[in-house]
Amino acid sequence: MNNKIVIIDYGIGNILSVKQGFQKIGANVIVSSNIKIIETATHIVLPGVGAYENAMNALNQLKLTDVVIKIANKGVPLLGICLGMQMLLDESHEFGITKGLGLIPGRVENFPLSILENEPIKVPQINWHELVPNQSNNNWQNSILSNQKQSDSVYFVHSFVANPSHEKHKLAEYMCGGNRITAVIEKDNVMGCQFHPEKSGTTGLNILKNFTSL
Questions:
Q1: Strand blocks (E) in the chain
Q2: Which of the following is catalytic: 43, 82, 91, 186?
């Protein structure tokens, strides 16, 4: 592959496992917080685990927030993983309101009550779930989910839910307590996975490979 995948290193996230995932598919991958290196990337990956506010503060302190927005606005494919996906939205309501990158309209909120039991859904939600198409955006072709089966399961670990403002930006969801929970979001060249593709076996590696082909 002639692509140059840059995983943004801002001190928050599952960077090593994400890097190993891309290496398994033969991608040319670099981990860096250097702005000049990031600006030369053909593809950008924003990983993340932990608290939203801490992650945004870390990104801001390294002066990487504007760089990520600038590169995304140029049309460079950008993939957010787990917390990194949530950071693509306008804001998070996790323990107060924290401003996000604003690349996809929407916000991060608490898990809804279980429709089936009218009780809180267990969080963190640590489980394998099958991806299902969004009801208003069910075409996975030419996306990171190209050639994926709806019965394929991927690995989730999260305590809050990403809620894009527009249904058209929800590419896939999963069912939990009778609710449809956002799993994959997409707006033009900006996309995100709530799950961990690097920990989701062959299905996850295929998703990473699809990303490098965009």
A1: 5-8, 29-32, 43-46, 78-81, 91-92, 98-99, 106-110, 125-130, 132-133, 153-158, 160-164, 170-176, 179-187, 190-193
A2: 82
